[in-house]
C-alpha cells in the first residue's frame, strides 16, 4: 500500500468514531474502476464501510437534488459546483480527481477498424453495421459528447438508425455480448470488460476529456471519515491506479 494512502487511512482512523463509519458514495460509472481498489484499501486500513452507488452524472444529480442523502459524490466539477450552489455539497470541498478520454471498442477477435484520423473515424462509423454509445438522454457524459460529435461530423443522420443507445453501465459489455459491432465510450469503462479490445482513443482533434471531482455532502452523516476518503482519492498515491485504469490526474 502506498505511503500516502496509508497516511490518509491513518488520518481516517484518528477521525473515526468509536464504531466504524458507513460512508455512502454516489459516483459516476466511469470512475468505478478507480474507486474499487482505493476503497478496498481504505476499508481495510480504517475499518470503515464504503457503500457505492453508481449511475450517470445526470441521474445522480437528479437524485441529490431530490433530497437523497450521501456522504461523498463523485461527479463532474460542473455538477459538484452546481450542487454546492444549491446547498447539497459542502462549500469548498470539491477535489478534482482524474480525467478520462473517449475511445472505441470492438469485440475480441474482430478486425480493428481504422480510427487514426478524423476522416478514418468517420468512415469507420459509416461502415459499421451498428454503433453503441450511452443514450444522451440518460445524462452520461460520453453519450452527450458522442451525440454532439456525430452532428459536428455531419454523420448523425447516417449513424442514428443503426445506433444502439445504452442507458447505463459499460458500452463494452454490449459489444462483448454481440449486441453491436462497435462501441464508443470512456476508456476507463472499456479496459476492464473481458472479451473486448480497446481500438484506441479518439483522434486528438475530436477527443473529449471528462474530469471527475469529489465533493462532501452538505448533510453528510460521516463527514470526518468522508473527508479522509476524499483525501485518499485525490492524493498523489492514486496516480498509479489512475494510469492503470485508463485515467490521468486531473490537476486543479
In short, what is this structure?
By secondary structure, the chain is α/β, with parallel strands linked by helices. It has 2 domains: 3-99 and 212-249, Periplasmic binding protein-like II (D-Maltodextrin-Binding Protein, domain 2); 102-206, D-Maltodextrin-Binding Protein, domain 2. It contains 11 helices and 11 strands.
Commentary on this structure:
40% of the residues lie in helices and 23% in strands. The protein has 11 helices and 11 strands. It has a 6-stranded mixed beta sheet. A 5-stranded mixed beta sheet has the order 7-6-8-5-9.
User: Biggest sheet: strands, sense, closure?
Assistant: 6 strands, mixed
Q: Return Rg in Å.
A: 19 Å
Overall number of domains: 2
Identify the strand order in the major beta sheet: 2-1-3-10-4-11
Number of DSSP-assigned strands: 11
The general outline is elongated
Task: Please supply descriptive tags for the structure shown above.
elongated, single chain, 6-stranded mixed beta sheet, 252 residues, 11 strands, D-Maltodextrin-Binding Protein, domain 2, 5-stranded mixed beta sheet, 2 domains, alpha/beta
Amino acid at each position: 500500500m502506498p505511503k500516502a494512502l496509508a497516511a490518509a487511512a491513518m488520518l481516517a482512523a484518528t477521525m473515526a468514531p468509536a464504531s466504524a463509519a458507513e460512508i455512502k458514495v454516489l459516483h459516476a460509472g466511469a470512475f468505478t474502476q478507480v474507486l474499487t481498489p482505493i476503497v478496498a484499501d481504505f476499508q481495510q486500513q480504517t475499518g470503515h464501510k464504503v457503500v457505492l452507488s453508481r449511475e450517470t452524472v445526470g441521474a445522480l444529480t437528479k437524485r441529490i437534488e431530490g433530497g437523497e442523502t450521501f456522504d461523498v459524490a463523485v461527479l463532474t466539477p460542473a455538477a459538484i459546483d452546481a450542487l454546492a450552489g444549491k446547498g447539497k455539497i459542502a462549500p469548498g470541498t470539491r477535489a478534482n480527481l482524474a480525467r478520462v478520454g473517449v475511445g472505441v471498442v470492438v469485440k475480441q477477435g474482430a478486425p480493428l477498424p481504422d480510427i487514426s484520423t478524423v476522416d478514418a473515424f468517420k468512415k469507420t462509423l459509416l461502415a459499421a453495421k451498428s454503433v453503441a454509445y450511452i443514450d444522451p438522454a440518460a445524462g452520461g457524459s460520453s453519450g452527450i459528447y458522442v451525440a454532439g460529435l456525430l452532428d459536428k461530423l455531419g454523420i448523425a443522420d447516417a449513424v442514428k438508425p443503426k445506433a444502439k443507445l445504452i442507458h447505463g453501465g459499460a458500452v463494452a459489455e454490449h459489444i462483448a455480448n454481440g449486441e453491436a459491432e462497435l462501441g464508443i465510450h470512456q476508456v476507463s469503462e472499456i479496459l476492464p470488460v473481458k472479451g473486448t479490445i480497446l481500438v484506441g482513443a479518439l483522434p486528438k482533434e475530436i477527443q473529449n476529456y471528462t474530469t471527475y471531482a469529489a465533493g462532501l455532502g452538505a448533510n453528510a452523516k460521516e463527514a470526518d471519515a468522508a473527508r479522509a476518503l476524499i483525501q485518499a482519492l485525490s492524493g498523489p498515491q492514486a496516480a498509479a491506479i489512475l494510469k492503470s485504469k485508463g485515467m490521468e490526474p486531473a490537476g486543479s
